[in-house]
Amino acid sequence: MYTVIVILILVVSVLLGLVVLVQNSKGGGLISNFGGANQMMGVRQTTDFLEKATWTMAIILVVLCLMSSMTIKPGRGGDVQDTQMREQIEMSAPVAPTDAPAE
Q: In Å, what is the CA distance from 25 to each residue of 2, 31, 47, 54, 55?
């Protein structure tokens, strides 16, 4: 489940980046190069669509990130380090003397 959510996060992130790059900024943005789209839908409708797409993708990204944090198991990732630390502590701990016969 975690892997699927991470893949969805990557896809949404790339799409969000593309939508932001296409938006019209103060300098004209990449949307000025796509004149055909403006004539077909109208300038205002294109801006509204891109703004709604940006907000939708941002909300989806936040929800997916929250879901991914909930699907991580509490001991995940630290188990290997904990086991290695325990082994090092056991190796470096002084050995208790065994019951030797009294002389």
A: 36, 9, 11, 14, 16
